[in-house]
Structures are given as structure tokens and as C-alpha cells.
Automatic annotation (TrEMBL):
Source superkingdom: Bacteria
Start and end residues of each DUF4440 domain: 41-146
UniProt-listed SUPFAM superfamilies: NTF2-like
Gene3D superfamilies in the record: 3.10.450.50
Keywords: Signal
A Pfam entry, by short name: DUF4440
Protein name: SgcJ/EcaC family oxidoreductase
Signal peptide: 1-20
Length: 162
């Protein structure tokens, strides 16, 4: 290999590294602030529907093949099945409330993973569970939809939990 070939090989290295690393850098940068705001608005819609006991509205927040990955249970797949899951699970009960906090967002402006904490309270305000969740959102047109929803609680509540 002559000196000219060696320099040519080294000249290609930064360009090929930049091209290969571009998708990783775009993902690592995370979604835009407006995307994070839009995802939080979807969380608010979910929480409001839950508070009203409007499980049909909750089902509409998921993609057609959206999936709940519930703790200790089987997958619940599809918007209609998700509606049925919540309807059956809360039949005859006063709706609970849920709040989300400590958000982390990963992804881009088309696909976002959210990691957050949750608090579920009974209709009279008593803490029922404290937990965490991982949600995968997909943008469909101009709307963010839940595609995967996995959650678990932090275990038995302690006497000082409020």
C-alpha cells in the first residue's frame, strides 16, 4: 500500500463513522420538547379517562395492536381487548385516580419510550399503589398512540405512604 492509499483510507474513516453514528446520535438526543409535551398530554388524557371510568376512551388511546404487559397476567392485545380489560377489572367499582411523575423520555419524534412513576388512589383519595411504568408511544399521523404498556407496583404500602 502506498502513502496515497493510506491517506485515502484514513480520509474515509471519519465520514463513514459519522454516517454510521448518525442514527445513534439522533436517538441519543431524545425527542424534542414539543414531543415530550405531547406525550405528557396523552398521559393526562389516560388519567382523566381513568378517573371518569371511561374505559372505552382508554382503549382509543392505544394502537390497534397495542398491548398491555400486566404484572402477573397474560398479554392483553388490541384496543378492544384493552377496553374490555379495564371495563371488566373495574366493573361495579368507583373509578380510581392515577397520576404520573418523574418522566424520562427516549427516542425521537416518531417513536418514544417513556419511563415514569405512578400513584393510584381510590375515589376517596386513599393511596392504593405506588409503582413505575414503561410505555412505548408511536406517532400515527399527528397523534401519539400507546403501543406497549408495562407496569408494576413497588410492593406493599408502608404505614407512612400517603
Amino acid at each position: 500500500m502506498n502513502m496515497k492509499s493510506i491517506f485515502a483510507a484514513f480520509a474515509i474513516l471519519p465520514v463513514s463513522s459519522a454516517i454510521a453514528g448518525a442514527p445513534i446520535a439522533a436517538y441519543a438526543a431524545g425527542p424534542s420538547r414539543s414531543t415530550e409535551v405531547a406525550i405528557k398530554a396523552e398521559n393526562d388524557r389516560w388519567a382523566e379517562a381513568f378517573k371518569r371510568g371511561d374505559y372505552e376512551a382508554i382503549g382509543h388511546l392505544y394502537t390497534e395492536d397495542g398491548t398491555l404487559l400486566q404484572p402477573g397476567g397474560k398479554r392483553v392485545k388490541g384496543a378492544a381487548a384493552i377496553t374490555q380489560y379495564f371495563t371488566a377489572g373495574y366493573a361495579g367499582k368507583e373509578p380510581d385516580t392515577v397520576s404520573f411523575s418523574n418522566f424520562e423520555f427516549y427516542g425521537n419524534n416518531e417513536v418514544v419510550t417513556e419511563v415514569s412513576d405512578s400513584l393510584v388512589r381510590s375515589h376517596d383519595g386513599q393511596l392504593k399503589s405506588r409503582g413505575k411504568q414503561m410505555l412505548l408511544f408511536i406517532k400515527q399521523g399527528n397523534t401519539w398512540k400507546l403501543h406497549r404498556d408495562i407496569w408494576n407496583d413497588d410492593g406493599p404500602l408502608k404505614s407512612d405512604d400517603r
